[in-house]
Amino acid sequence: MRYPDGGGLTAEERDRREQVLFAAADLLDGGSDREVARQFRVTRMSANRWRRALASGGRQALVSKGPGGARCRLDARPTACP
User: Fold this and answer.
1) Tens digits of per-residue pLDDT, 18-67?
2) How many whole angstroms separate alpha carbon 15 and alpha carbon 9?
3) CA angle, residues 13, 15, 17, in degrees to nearest 5
4) Where is region (Disordered) located (predicted)?
5) Which of 11, 17, 20, 65 makes the best surface tag, with the fewest CB within 10 Å?
């Protein structure tokens, strides 16, 4: 495993990121990718990706889909050591 504590964003961090994306969506309606990228300190490629997601799926496309990666297949029960 790459991160011993699970890595990725917590639920609070995902919520905060969604709020940033929604604020960026307001600017994307009338502004350029360059302006959005400068204001939110991201690359123009990220701003353009947000614009395309907004155009294809509306604000719902910017909502977090939860933690990424495969689901853990291990169960929580302790194993017996021989």
Assistant:
1) 899 999 998 888 888 999 999 999 999 999 999 999 899 988 888 877 76
2) 10
3) 70
4) 61-82
5) 65
Q: Which residues of 30-69 are buried (b: 16+ CB within 10 A; e: fewer)?
A: ebebeebbeeeebeeeebbebbebbeeeeeeebeeeeeee
Which residues, in sequence order, are CB contacts of 9 under 8 Å at separation 6+? 17, 67
Which residues lie closer than 8 Å to 61 by C-beta, 6 or more apart?
53, 54
Q: Are 79 and 38 in contact (CB under 8 A)?
A: no
Rounded Cα gap, residues 14 and 74, in angstroms: 25
User: What is the token pair recorded at 11?
Assistant: 């639920």
What is the arithmetic mean of pLDDT over 1-26?
78
What does the pLDDT read at residue 74? Answer: 73
> What's the residue count for the chain?
82
Question: In the numeric block, which tokens belong to residue 50?
Answer: 């947000």
